[in-house]
Amino acid sequence: MSRTVLALGRPSEKQQLFLKARTKHVGFGGARGGGKSWAIRDKAKRLCLRYGGIKLLIVRRTYPELMNNHIMPLQSELPTVVAQFNKTEKLFRFCNGSTIRFGYCNRDRDLDQYQGAEYDVIFLDEATQLGETWIKKITACLRGANGFPKRIYYTCNPGGASHAYFKRLFIDRRYEAGENPDDYTFIQSLVTDNKALMEAQPDYIRQLEALPPKLRDAWLYGRWDIFDGQFFEEFRETPDLALCEKAGITSEQAFEQRRFTHVIRPFEIPRGWNIMRSYDFGYNKPFSLGYWAIDYDGILYRIAEVYGCTQTPDEGLKWTPDEQFRYFAEIERQHPLLKGRKITDSVADPAIWDGSRGESIAETANRYGIYFSPGDNERLAGWMQVHYRLQFDENGYPRMYFFDTCKAAIRTLPLMTYSQTKPEDLDTSREDHCPDEIRYTCMSRPIKPSAAKREARPLVSFDPLG
Ligand SMILES: Nc1ncnc2c1ncn2[C@@H]1O[C@H](COP(=O)(O)OP(=O)(O)OP(=O)(O)O)[C@@H](O)[C@H]1O
Ligand SMILES: [Mg+2]
């Protein structure tokens, strides 16, 4: 008669998908309480039992978190005949030679512990809490001349230091050079997918429901386009479900009616509408050029854009001013929505008129037949104008839309966060080139806030009285 030494748990459906995933990078979760840490422990145990001698690493931001979420639970789940914990080495050693080591990373010098180390499988629990550079340095330890699987598992909640990195990889699935889309799988697991927790602690979901709206949407519903500190809280890439429900329409109907959303399908621009452009110069940083159609009511439609996505001076697209303006002139001759159209207005960052080092950027543009006037750079007033444009009126119509082809604006607007030092401004260390150029556009035709919202609540994140 055989005796069960180690009973593995019963994974939920989403956890099963996680356990079965075979790509090199596997993302899991995206909300609170979905059973992420449990899934990591379960997968780690299965790998250790199956591949004798395999080397695993589980990382969290701090050692106390490792203790609470992994080491203590594993100590009670793993009989000592199967595996023993060595406190000095921070490692479980299995009877078949497999090991699970625990690593943390809360500052740069914590990276020393990963120098020269080799692991077959790495688990980054709450990976969005770790900086992107740290993640890359830790995952560089994934190597070994053996036949064991080589994989990295990430669990994450929206928000945190590398929110944008994981949103790009797992939600937007936008890949850069050297990243193969087939290497990435993401399995979303919400608290409602974790039946064990729902049964054991039905109150937990109510705790999540009671969170402030932004955090609640992120942690309960796993929404990645909002997070604490988000500057354009009102921006909606898809129709706002709560507002649709209130208005008694489906999100499909809202999308067709262009209500409760800012992103819409492109359409032919009527001949009578004006077209304008806005520009933020960049060379060692991204440049951003937006084209706008303006309807008879003054509503703005971002219909096309060119975005030079240079992340650092050493990589990516890096166009000189000449290259940029030559291309813009070409775009205006060729683009189906722009060709044959007169551009009636054109605004840019006032800094491009600086001629102290020879020909100014504005003068270079003129050589290609592109003429700008200086944008109004009053930042706070400008952001208020962007907010007013994004507000939905009582029927759910905003006064600024984005064609769904304008990927850079749609991607970067939700990434903006509040400045730590100047609460009503945005944090300029982020990728704010589209927002800046959108601000110049809005400032070129200022509007009043919509009546429906004027009394509703302050538009900035701080309360000057409180
Ligand atoms: N398949 C399962 N069987 C039994 N219990 C489970 C299972 N999955 C998760 N749990 C339990 O549900 C609770 C929440 O799970 P877990 O801590 O893994 O969630 P999480 O997504 O990591 O949460 P957080 O976002 O708070 O880190 C824990 O008590 C865990 O032990
Ligand atoms: Mg967890």
How would you describe the overall organization of this protein?
- With 466 residues, this protein is an alpha/beta fold.
- It has 2 domains: 13-199, P-loop containing nucleotide triphosphate hydrolases (Rossmann fold), CATH 3.40.50.300; 241-454, Nucleotidyltransferase, domain 5, CATH 3.30.420.
- The chain is 31% helix and 17% strand.
- The chain contains 16 helices and 15 strands.
- It has helices at residues 13-20, 36-50, 63-77, 132-139, 163-171, 195-200, 203-209, 213-219, 241-247, 251-257, 321-334, 361-367, 379-390, 407-412, 433-444, 451-454; strands spanning 25-29, 55-60, 83-86, 91-94, 99-104, 121-124, 151-156, 184-188, 263-264, 274-280, 287-294, 300-308, 343-348, 373-374, 400-403.
- An 8-stranded mixed sheet has the order 3-4-5-2-6-7-1-8, with helices on both faces. The chain has a 7-stranded mixed sheet with strand order 9-15-12-11-10-13-14.
- Helix 13 (379-390) packs across helix 15 (433-444).
- The longest helix has 15 residues, at 36-50.
- It starts with 12 loop residues before the first helix and ends in a 12-residue tail after the last helix.
- The relative contact order is 0.10.
- Residues 310-316 and 452-466 have low confidence and may be disordered.
- Residues 9-12, 15, 29, 32-38, 157, 194, 196-197 line the site of adenosine-5'-triphosphate.
